[in-house]
Amino acid sequence: xxxxxxxxxxxxxxxxxxxxxxxxxxxxxxxxxxxxxxxxxxxxxxxxxxxxxxxxxxxxxxxxxxxxxxxxxxxxxxxxxxxxxxxxxxxxxxxxxxxxxxxxxxxxxxxxxxxxxxxxxxxxxxxxxxxxxxxxxxxxxxxxxxxxxxxxxxxxxxxxxxxxxxxxxxxxxxxxxxxxxxxxxxxxxxxxxxxxxxxxxxxxxxxxxxxxxxxxxxxxxxxxxxxxxxxxxxxxxxxxxxxxxxxxxxxxxxxxxxxxxxxxxxxxxxxxxxxxxxxxxxxxxxxxxxxxxxxxxxxxxxxxxxxxxxxxxxxxxxxxxxxxxxxxxxxxxxxxxxxxxxxxxxxxxxxxxxxxxxxxxx
Length: 362
Hints:
Blueprint (H helix, E strand, L loop, with lengths): L5 E5 L16 H7 L40 H12 L3 E4 L2 H4 L7 H18 L7 E6 L5 H11 L5 E5 L13 H10 L3 E4 L4 H4 L7 H6 L1 H14 L2 H4 L5 E4 L6 H15 L10 H8 E4 L9 H10 L2 H4 E2 L21 H16 L12
Parallel strand pairs: 1-2, 2-3, 3-4, 4-5, 5-6, 6-7, 7-8
């Protein structure tokens, strides 16, 4: 019998370039995009960017038997990930629309993100009742993004809103229309590590290793923004999930945020309580990569200090090369804590819509 597992980071793909989205465009948009129907926002080498692992970012064993790209076959993904590892629910985070963050035309980015969302609702959520979707919004125009949230907010299987990074830190009031719509719909905001130039291309950074090792610094920056720009104060019901930014850094950063708040409180009068309280109530972190902490006592201490029983969600990051299988991580923690990380925290974060249509109660 399953212990109850929600995987909060699974990456599906669409094959066929923008042409696969044409059924979701009106005639004018088809005409506009026809010359670029073979383009993929992820680039011509999707899944195989320059990388320090020879196979690229994806596992070769995750390629479907029919061929194509890892993550492109819904039925095979359900078997290879969910059946094989006893996963009850998988939250799909599609990378292709998230890479629209670099597109200059806000209307085009919005219409493409909407088409991708419709594609995954139609072609993935209906394939297996265990699939859920974090819709992607194009942040170039927050008003259009809010409109897309409202369009899909009542769609069964849609459980979150992925906001890709652009030049504004996530807590900045620029995003208010997005946060307002997400809070209204009861959908958490999802932030995910991206290979976008907004996160990965900075002067003096020339290696994948440097970017990969420093990913946590990006998460720290965004967490500080959420707290001290006042986003969590302005939207008291909003939840935010940090995916793949790491988690071993959380305790020390929370302490620093609290100490800074005490010292600089007059400059942020709208932050009404210690940052640690906002974080414990409404900010969550996912487990992948589950760092090899060199001592089990250290690991237990970190999990205790970050209140992992409330703040940590399991994620595999399938089909990427550094993905984590649920049976290989957190093997020596208590059964109660395991249940919280692998199941209960996700249910409390994403709400009842996460459980709608689950084949059997866990």
